[in-house]
User: Fold this.
Amino acid sequence: MRLIDSPDLPDAVVTPSGSLSRHQLLEQASRVAGRIKGAPIVAVDAVPDLSTIVAVTGALLAGVPIVPIPPDAGDLERAHILRDSGAALLAGSDISEISPGRPRLDAALVLYTSGTTGAPKGVVISSEAVEAGLDALAEAWQWTAEDTLVHGLPLYHVHGLVLGVLGPLRLGCRLIHTGRPTPQAYAANPGTMYFGVPTVWSRIAADPAAARALAPARLLVSGSAPLPAPVFDDLAALTGQAPVERYGMTETLITVSARADGERRAGQVGQPLPGITTRLVDESGAPLPSDGTTIGHLQVRGPTLLDGYLRPGGVRPPDLTDGWFPTGDVATVGPDGWHRIVGRASTDLIKTGGYRVGAGEVEDALLLHPAVREAAVIGVPHPDLGERITAFVVAGPVAPAELIDFVAGRLAVHKRPRVVHLVDELPRNAMGKVQKSFLTED
Ligand code: MCA
Ligand code: AMP
Assistant:
């Protein structure tokens, strides 16, 4: 990815563990680049601080694809990502070993993300897709080198890493990473743009003093999950500006957004970004009308789509029909092009605190516990997290808290069930398949 070629900027990157000018960042990153040049792929322990930003910048300079590892990934998830990607671990600026096994990828990033079943898949994203995605956002949000972006999102997903780190690198703007996305940290750091997932915005809206401190900003941006309308309204009242919502996914980057110079609507995520087209289709793939009321499967097409999924021998291209990628989300589109995301087609993909978690991966982890015989996991609507991971388990004597800790120790901590219900049996149909619609909390 081409980085902006601009003069030095003091405090170009600020984190709780220290800050760097633009020249210092490029100097440190160049040292990393020199050490990893020619490697097929490197894994970065994506701790939320300067070392990750330096490592990622270094890999970009060297043209080496990066696999960010969640810093709280448990042993199972970490081992899976390292084995599946074949990557060497680059911890901060220390390189343990460069894996010779994998053929060189022509990609910028491999981001691991959950499917409905099995272990997370490596989504291969090209530099061209990242550039197209960031340039489209820069146009829609009037995002320039004059901005200061503030956020505290994790550095191993599209939101915190691609938008939140590669965005400032490409546009040449300042970045303040707050370590964690707390209302107090956002309020304490003046910026022109703030990024958050809905859980972050709802916590800010519940802290009026923190929300009011963001009033001077140019844009408050929400994405990764649905922003509840009351949070949209509270933010507008407390900060004097309605948040800008945008929609995307790991496989497509950001495809739909409200504009800096345009309208913002509660419950709607905006219009397609420049270069992106969208359509609604029915179960058979036939196009549906954009009349604002017809609900259909949302498909997107454009330059920001993934190259494919990482496989041992290379990259498996996504299943596209005439270039259209099936998002798995159901939506309505108005005659004016405004999109409303109604939900996901599959109940087995859960969005909790803005994280995408596959029910199958959590069920598989629970089944590794010796006391567990059967497990079914669902997302239950929750005021803070959007959805809360909830497990129904048939097991021998075991405390729910032990099962929660068991999952937290094996997968990334945010994938742990927040609630475990011990039940005598799971509801199944005549074929023996678990009927998740019958799982309720009362
Ligand atoms: C809690 N902790 C534990 C356990 N329980 N540790 C071990 N065992 C346990 N049983 C620890 C955690 O490690 C953490 O430690 C602390 O307790 C709090 O964790 P948790 O309760 O999970 O935090 P939370 O309050 O629920 O977090 C809310 C959050 C978080 C901050 C909003 O959900 C978040 O950062 N979400 C962002 C997700 C995101 O970026 N998604 C973008 C995907 P410690 O305090 O040390 O950390 S990209 C995407 O969706 C697309 C492209 C898009 O459109 O953007
Ligand atoms: P991930 O692959 O983690 O990037 O998650 C992508 C999914 O997050 C999408 O398929 C949507 O279900 C959801 N999502 C992202 N942004 C929004 C939004 N603004 N409103 C509703 N859902 C969203």
The first strand starts at residue 13 and ends at 15. The chain has a mean pLDDT of 94.
